[in-house]
Amino acid sequence: MDMEKVTNLIRQTKNLQVLYVEDDKETQINTILILENFFHHITVASNGAEGLEAFNTKRFDLVLSDINMPVMDGMEFVKAIRSQGDDVAIVLISAYDDKEYLLSAIEKGVSGYLIKPFDMNTLQEVLEKVLKKMEGRRHSANVIALVNNYFYNKEEETLYSMDQKITLTKNEKALFRLLSKSEGAVYHPIDLEIALDVNNMRSLISRLNKKTGATLVVSIYSEGYRLNTL
Predict the structure, then answer these.
(1) Whole-structure pTM value
(2) d(CA 130, CA 150)
(3) Do residue 149 and residue 181 come from a single domain?
């Protein structure tokens, strides 16, 4: 095991919010011991229905889900997430090496798969591939990198946290559209209010920053607002 690569990977994954869905308790315990090498924030659910409930109440950067589960299986769970238009990275876990089935799942929007039982080395390989896909999305010419692992795609007019799409209100979309026109440009609050037809720009930006948990739009003293880019 290349410890330098592992250390670098942990640096990228430790603060990610992870949802792990597995119905077998013994497998849960053993898998969590492996996952904890890479992640500090793991939410556990026992089937797809519980997983979906957790997913709809909290923002996650990565979902790891077993396929064969009661109540709602892994594929139904994936379909439910994707039907919401959410692009969160998803890794499926299967007890069977049915590559044709799993490749079909990948075509439906799954980022990768793991065959049980898997070890730390195998998990490392899959995570490296998933993170590479996330990075690829960030480095498009139309993408603006923001603080706290957020990025804004100008072409899609979409805000992402890691690989997860963040739902924006009409006014928030208009704000990002305007601020991203000229990277680094500072806009006076009154100019923004007129352009967006909004009465209280400070309130709009405060709600946005509170929703995302990050200062994505920063105030420049006596000048105005700009995107908080890297």
Answers:
(1) 0.63
(2) 17
(3) yes
